[in-house]
């Protein structure tokens, strides 16, 4: 039989292992002096060139941080996150990925918003690919979060090729969270998610409910139009004659 202290120790070890597994690696932290100006995180950060060569940059960016981000620039209006990799895969000697963000004031909302305007990929210092970004913006005090970001048409936040070289690249980013302005205590601010309030599932439920409600209303209306016969035959009297017009 097991001793009580051994069982308790085993449980503590299992709980510690579960907590350790649940903890993810910290985000990439870009500082200017003693202040953090860019925070970048992704659970999967991968590229594919020419539809065949897969480049997984997740470990190099967040775990071992074998990446040079010294060329990153920060200001109150424009921020650039520059990630440079040396020999990320056979056949590519250098790779630089730039995330260009801006912080502007919009009179309609009477507040500042930051947007990720474009993503640039420079291969071997020569090949230049540029992507326009759609769907990545948040209030200036917030960070931005999205489950899927990339070149696929199915992703809620897309990278749209802007030149011919960009068509040779596919980008896959999972659980992206990025912030380039107004970072407090070296932590992400409240995240503005790319998924809106009305998700496809909610829209399907609303449309189905409206159709069922319309069928119910139509059925009740038809039942209310039914009328009963107000004339009956009298067995002691003459036969009832109902004109065809009635």
From TrEMBL:
Keyword list, A-Z: Membrane, Transmembrane, Transmembrane helix
Residues annotated as domain V-type proton ATPase subunit S1/VOA1 transmembrane: 196-234
V-type proton ATPase subunit S1 luminal domain boundaries: 36-181
GO MF entry, a single one: ATPase activator activity
Main subcellular location: membrane
Keyword DNA-binding: no
GO CC field: bounding membrane of organelle; cytoplasmic vesicle membrane; endomembrane system; proton-transporting V-type ATPase complex
InterPro entries: Ac45_acc_su, VAS1/VOA1_TM, VAS1_LD
Keyword Membrane: yes
Segments passing through the bilayer: 202-221
Subcellular location: Membrane
Gene Ontology biological-process entries: regulation of cellular pH
Gene3D superfamilies associated with the record: 2.40.160.110
Membrane topology: Single-pass membrane protein
Entry's family note: Belongs to the vacuolar ATPase subunit S1 family.
Identification of the protein by name: VAS1 ATPase
UniProt organism field: Oxylabes madagascariensis (white-throated Oxylabes)
